[in-house]
Amino acid sequence: xxxxxxxxxxxSIAGPMTAYWLAKAGARVTxxxxxxxxxxxGQAIDxxxxxxxxxxxxxxxxxxxxxxxxxxxxxxxxxxRFLAVVQDPKRGNRINLMGIHPRDKRDLTRPFRDAxxxxxxxxxxxxxxxxxxxxxxxxxxxxxxxxxxxFYATEMVQVRVPSLHNGRFVLVGDAGHATGPTGTGTTLAxxxxxxxxxxxxxxxxxxxxxxxx
Length: 213
Description:
By secondary structure, the chain is α+β, with helices and mostly antiparallel strands. The protein is built from nine helices and seven strands; from the N terminus they run E-H-E-H-H-E-E-E-H-H-H-E-E-H-H-H. The strands form three sheets. A three-stranded antiparallel β-sheet has the order 3-4-5, with no helix packed on it. The two termini are 17 Å apart.
């Protein structure tokens, strides 16, 4: 594969994993990312099943991952609104919130996106209103969120594409097969990258055949 060159767009999970396995096979790989630095907050990284197997094939990765593993203190669901508390000895408790909408309701994330465009404070107020009256310790959590300095929020939208590749353009990870709120996104990204590189290696001299595989 020494003559093959790849451009990987995105340096989250699938991008670096794809780059790693392609480079290990001898390809020349360039990775580009629009954000200038790593994000310190966001959705949890959940590695399971085949993801664990692939992780163990990369020297030092399992130890590095386990060193950052948090302890989940609790999880509750109230009327389609999920709340999880994660213990973080270095930064205090971390709270994850998730709202889920039915598939037959179109564009219910529009108010969220409108609030996002207005800035962080407007988005915090929108989320606080959304969780108002949800029960448990929600009111206490919302008050803490308003004063938080490491706030992060985004929408999750699943788009199903008819094919994962078009010519020499290939989708890997969430770009091609996002799972939605059920988890396993990290594992699928790792597995997709590993399989893609493996198929390209198996079909040496036939890139189209590797992508079909």
